[in-house]
Amino acid sequence: MTDSTNPIEISWFGALCDDDYEFLGVPQPELASSWEHCRDIVQTADRNGFDNILLPSGYQLGIDSTAFAAAIATHTEQIHLLLAVRIGEMWLPQLARQLATIDQMAGGRLTINIISSDMPGQALDSEPRYRRTVEHMHGLRALLDGSRLEQHGDFVDFDLDPPRIATVNPGCPPMYFGGFSEAAKECAAEAADVFLTWPDTVASVAETIEDMRGRAARFDRDLRYGLRAHMIVRETEAEAKAAADRLISQLDADTGEAIRQKSLDTASVGVSRQSALRDEADDDGYAEANLWTGVGRARSGAGAAIVGDPDQVVAKLRAYQDVGVDAFILSGYTHIAECDLVAEHVLPAIDHAPLRPRW
Q: Is residue 59 part of a domain?
């Protein structure tokens, strides 16, 4: 359990992957991922006092996360940049140089979201794909720690000094990682700093954290835990539920399915759990109090939102904190408007600050 009076990390979401809507499933040109629109989202979160912002990565969807991170680093002041990196996309030594350079551009505000998806045009079985990810995480950590890399595995095979350029704060920035298969959980236990889970009931999140604590202990490690969720907060519960209903009011089943199938991770264990959560929900889409699954009708990933008035939303976040979550990656539609609402109604009630590595 975690003391809900301790500071936690509250992050927002940079919609780099064509995931911003007024009405789910109804694209609007002004909300499509572009430098201008995504810049405005990040700067809004920065101005509103969020601690970090996830910059997601997709192939068919949106714009490139690494190029965007380098650019936005010089257009932000305080917010950390949680850059999603697809393992295998970049030659490991060059990736270390690239991340250290972006960290310098951001004044030491870089964090890393490790993605273990297949490369576009390539398919690799789960076990070797996660083994590749573990090897890259160990190699990346060594190089960003400024250590000589002497690693001889199936995917990383180097005797190599680290690049001259280093991160602003000595050592590798925190690595965030999410995945729900057995191989993914073992990967996180061995090599991640923050294990991310998607929205679920409080009891289910507690079970996941307890499971991961046991796995990490076998590697003599201690992880932090994060929750990725959508938000719909309004002055009253009735207004929040009405906003949720409005969000999906123009969505039909075929459009929602087409949107979900665009992602490369549609067959993952995590996505299957999000589908099951929708199936378990009541007729209004609520899996439990203030946890609404309607977002998942047009999303392959995180598919539920915390919905309610400010007191209800804060209580829900604290319930997750009480079972071990100390990092939240939040989002909402539209991303700028909901960012302002969360900043107004939620942030003042929660003591929050960026996470720091424990080692």
A: yes
State the DSSP string of 278-326.
HHHS-TTSEEETTEE-GGGGG-SS---EEEE-HHHHHHHHHHHHHTT--
Q: How many domains does the chain have?
A: 1
Higher-pLDDT residue of 267, 53: 53
pTM, two decimals, is: 0.92
Does 118 reside within a domain? yes
Residue 50 contacts residue 12 (beta carbons within 8 Å): yes
- Give residue 166's domain range: 9-230+320-349
119, 88 in Cβ contact below 8 A?
yes
> What is the structure's pLDDT at 356?
72
CATH code assigned at 191 = 3.20.20.30
pLDDT in tens, 134-182: 999 999 999 999 999 999 999 999 999 999 999 999 999 999 999 999 9
| C-alpha to C-alpha distances, 184 to 125, 133, 196, 201, nearest whole angstrom | 12, 9, 11, 21
334 vs 231: CA distance, rounded Å: 10
Residue 51 resides in a domain = yes
What is the C-alpha to C-alpha distance for residues 129 and 25, in angstroms, rounded to an integer? Answer: 32
